[in-house]
Amino acid sequence: MHIQSQRKILTLLIVLLISVFIISLFIGRYKISISDILTNMGTRIIREEPINSNDWNVFFYIRLPRIILVTIVGAILSMTGATYQSVFRNPLASPSILGVSAGSAFGVALGILLNKEGLLGPYLFSFSFGLIAVFLTFYISVWSKVKGVTVLVLAGMAVTSFFNAGVSLIQYLADPYEKLPNIVFWLMGGFNRAGWREVYISLFTMVPGIIILLILRWHLNVMSMGDEEAISMGVNVKWTRILLIFVSTVMIAPTVAVAGQVTWIGLVTPHIARYIIGANHRYMLPAAGVLGGILLLIMDNIARTLTPSEIPISIVTAFIGAPFFVYLLIRRRESGWNQ
Amino acid sequence: MKKYFLFFIFIILLMLTTLFSSDFVIVRDMIGREVKVPLNVERIITTYKPATQFVFALNEQDKLVGVDDGSSREKLFSYIYPEIKNLTPVGSKREGVNIETIASLHPDVVILFPHNEAELTASKLEQLGIASFVINPESLEQIRETNILLGKVLGLEEKARIVDEQFENILNILQRTKNLPNNQKKVIYFANSELLDTVGEGLLQNDMIELAGGINPAAMNKKGFVKISPEQLIVWNPDMVVTSQLYRGNIDDLLNDPKYRYVNAFKNKEVYRFPSELEPWDFPSPSSYLGMLWLAINAHPDLFTDIDYEQIVNDFYYTLYGISYNELLNKANN
Question: Which of A290, B197, B225, B284 is the most buried (most CB within 10 A)?
Answer without folding.
Answer: A290
